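User: Need the bound-state model for KG4:
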Amino acid sequence: MEMTEMKEKDVVILAIESSCDETAASVVRNGREVLSNVISSQIDLHTLFGGVVPELASRKHIEKINQVIDRALSDASMTLDDITAVGVTYGPGLVGALLVGVAEAKAIAFAKNLPLIGVHHIEGHICANFIEHPELEPPFLCLIVSGGHTHLVMMKDYGEFEIIGRTRDDAAGEAFDKVARAIGLGYPGGPKIDKAAKEGDPHAITFPKARIEGSPYDFSFSGLKSAVLNYLNHARMMGEEVNPNDLAASFQNAVVEALVSKAMLAAKEYKVDKLVLAGGVASNSALREGMAQACAKRGYKLYFPSPIYCTDNAAMIGSAAYYEYQKGARGGWDLNAVPNLKLGER
Ligand code: KG4
Ligand code: ZN
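Assistant: Bound-state model below.
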């Protein structure tokens, strides 16, 4: 009964993520069980410059990656001999940063004669939801909101995606970071605005809503960002005091309203009753609350990951790699970093 044995065998993925400013490795069993999740953040380094410096990120990844992988294996009480396949983010992201993870994954896979699986970073963010929600299965509608991406995606099946909306300019997280810098809250701005907004009035200032002709599910945040900057400049010129908490709360409210209303519109049009949040901004308390209320009102089920799985991590890559592995996806030794990789492309 060799076939049965093969089928019953656990698939243990060593996953690596290095697309931006987090060096991360994780061991994931059968796509949903995280045996270890190690993240070495570079936030302290980049905070000195007010944002991610790509060259510094690459160098830091090189310094950290072996330690992070060793730690992920030891936390899982495993060695490379226990690993079934190596999964790695190969795009989108910073090319130099991605290359560190891809080269490392190829080296390990080659040395240990293991299958190599290239993972799309956004697919990883979506799959982060499988870790803590064992009952969650596609199809569902996913709102991915991170520092680099703002997408509405239908996940039709494992590994099958249809992008139905995206940002035309800034990503939601990018808008949070830029507005935080303008208010003087520092980097990374998202969590700081989230905190300041708790002390402010979300209706203190009304910001204009972006309307995109012919694309009901697309987003635009650069106009909102400019409106915040104009508001600040105007107040400064007039010598008026600005309450940073009110400003943070009103800006956040405008972002959340845009995200929630378009997600609801898409859910109705695509006839889904399961919604999923993903990406760094999915940690935002107002977004979680706004989505929860809108979903409850319509009888939709809402899922989102714990904050540790919202931000960049390798466990989500291990989950996505498992489903790609099950579908037979294998990367060759020519697997390369693809900084502008599109979802659903190979
Ligand atoms: O997914 P992520 O860690 O990295 C990318 O793939 O981009 O997302 C990082 C982004 C940053 O822009 C950060 O400011 C934002 O997520 N973020 C938040 C919160 N926590 C992180 N934005 C709003 N509220 C939060 N609580
Ligand atoms: Zn990310």
